[in-house]
Design a protein that fits this description.
This protein is α+β, with helices and mostly antiparallel strands and about 500 residues long. It contains 16 helices and 21 strands. α4 (about 110-115) crosses α5 (about 130-140), α5 (about 130-140) packs across α6 (about 150-165) and α8 (about 270-290) packs across α9 (about 305-315). The two termini are about 20 Å apart.
Length: about 500
């Protein structure tokens, strides 16, 4: 789960890329970076560990001159967490290519061996983004074009699709030639195009989400289609081509549950409206299971559950209250590397309003339950505040399987719902009653926004992975995601 953006303009783009990255900050807080190209073909770049506001000071912005460029905010899913993993990444041959990537390659180790032994390309990290960059660069370089055109870029993307497995949404800067963006054949990770009128020509933005478009004066044009490549040349002309023979739209359904901003529309599905429908369907399930329930009040766990909770409360004809005050300067807890840090973070992140809990039967609404650490601590806080009973509902089904496509949730055996019944999970987190969203209802909530999408990537719920994977990859990933391994990596950086 990273955030990427590419912008072409008649004027300098650094400030617009900066603003876009700020609005994509929720997609990654580990590192941020930007590279722009000026009219002479010179690249100007800056990347560092930390938040966008800390990475780019005024002295850096003054040097980031150029009318097209790309940016990235990183949330580590593959590779380590050091500064060498910050993006965009760069190779000087051919032409000079900078690339920013959101997703996860499931065959990166095989590709890395091929790059070294057969194609004599050196990799400086174990990042799958560096692998992807070098695969594309190699396929482009094989064409030996002195002045490459769109056909050469699109052919290189076609070859990249054939070789790469997994999820990838990409923006790339090809020095002196323009911007290139492409999306894996299933379109697992999102990518959206925006357009506006410049002084003499169209200007374009391509980003993980379109929430920033209106603030920058852009209107949403469309999504980049699964398997498609989009090229914006230095004259500002937009070209596109379907670069996969087996494109099959399968967007990640967890984008609508948690990852994306509510003011984004991805694959023509409004995230906000999808979450409203999740709340409605969850209310119907509650009424079906307990028509004579004794719930007094509905309280969301901020922020991504608030829309679903508001709709749920309306459907149940119950009061909706804000029972928690969120500290917005604490990052997303499921990203943190170990249990102890996550436990501490809950208290730092959420402060409770006792008066909304005392003597009441409270229904807490969250977007999902992953490890259960946060849920358990929040229920404890609610009971300490005087709640009579604490019911807990999840807008998503039980998370039972690890994610392979860009969400570093946990090893399977660290997922609280893995191998447990709903009743056992309820007991573990201390809830008096636990209600999960049904998977069919979640699918309907998203699909209603765009009935043309027949399938979603939802492997964390059903264990069905839509791309080719090896047992070795699963085992390696499982091991790397255990808390003790994450702590060890943190200490080494």
């Amino acid at each position: 789960m990273c955030g990427i953006v590419g912008i072409y303009s008649e004027t300098h783009v650094a400030s617009s890329i900066y603003d876009s990255l700020l609005m994509l900050q929720h997609r990654g807080q580990d590192a941020a970076g930007m590279v722009v190209c000026d009219e002479t073909g010179r690249l100007n770049s800056r990347k560092s560990m930390g938040y966008v506001r800390d990475t780019f000071q005024q002295r850096h912005m003054n040097k980031l001159l150029g009318n097209y460029g790309i940016g990235h905010v990183r949330y580590p899913t593959a590779g380590g967490a050091g500064k060498e993993f910050a993006q965009p990444m760069y190779v000087n041959s051919p032409y000079g290519i900078s690339l920013a990537h959101n997703g996860n390659l499931t065959n990166s180790k095989v590709l890395a061996r091929e790059l070294f032994h057969a194609e004599m390309r050196h990799l400086n990290t174990d990042s799958d983004s560096e692998v992807l960059l070098n695969i594309f660069a190699h396929e482009l370089g094989k064409q030996r074009a002195i002045l490459p055109s769109k056909k050469h870029f699109f052919k290189a993307v076609k070859k990249t699709h054939i070789r790469c497995q997994g999820a990838y949404a990409v923006v790339a800067l090809i020095t002196g030639f323009g911007l290139l963006a492409f999306r894996d054949p299933r379109g697992i990770r999102p990518l959206v195009i925006g357009v506006k009128d410049g002084l003499s020509k169209k200007e374009y933005i391509i980003a993980s989400e379109n929430a920033s478009f209106s603030a920058l004066g852009f209107k949403t044009l469309r999504d980049v289609y699964p398997g498609e490549a989009v090229y914006i040349d230095v004259e500002g002309n937009l070209h596109s081509d379907q670069c996969s023979d087996n494109a099959e739209p399968t967007p990640c359904i967890f984008e609508y549950v948690y990852l994306a901003r509510p003011d984004s529309t991805l694959d023509e599905i409004s995230v906000y409206k999808a979450r409203m429908r999740m709340g409605q369907k969850l209310a119907k399930k509650i009424l079906k299971l307990k028509p004579e329930h004794d719930i007094d009040v509905v309280i969301p766990i901020p922020d991504s559950s608030t829309t679903a909770a508001l709709q749920l409360a309306a459907a149940l004809k119950l009061p909706y209250r804000q029972g928690f005050v969120k500290n917005r300067y604490v990052g997303r807890t499921f990203i943190m590397p170990n249990q102890e840090e996550r436990k501490k973070s809950v208290r730092r992140k959420l402060n409770i309003l006792d008066l909304e809990f005392k003597g009441k039967n409270v229904l807490l609404v969250d977007d999902s339950i992953v490890r259960g650490t946060t849920s358990k601590r929040i229920i404890e806080m609610a009971k300490e505040a005087g709640a009579n009973k604490v019911y807990f509902s999840s807008a998503a089904p039980p998370v039972k399987f690890q994610n392979l496509y860009g969400i570093d949730m946990a090893a399977t055996n660290e997922l609280i719902a893995s191998g447990r019944t709903d009743e056992e999970v309820a007991k573990e987190i201390g809830a008096d009653w636990l209600i999960y969203q049904d998977l069919d209802d979640l699918i309907d909530s998203a699909q209603e926004g765009n009935p043309m999408i027949k399938n979603f990537e939802m492997s964390i719920f059903d264990g069905k992975y839509p791309t080719s994977i090896s047992s070795d990859y699963l085992e390696d990933l499982e091991s790397s995601r255990k808390d003790d391994q994450k702590v060890a990596r943190e200490k080494s950086n």
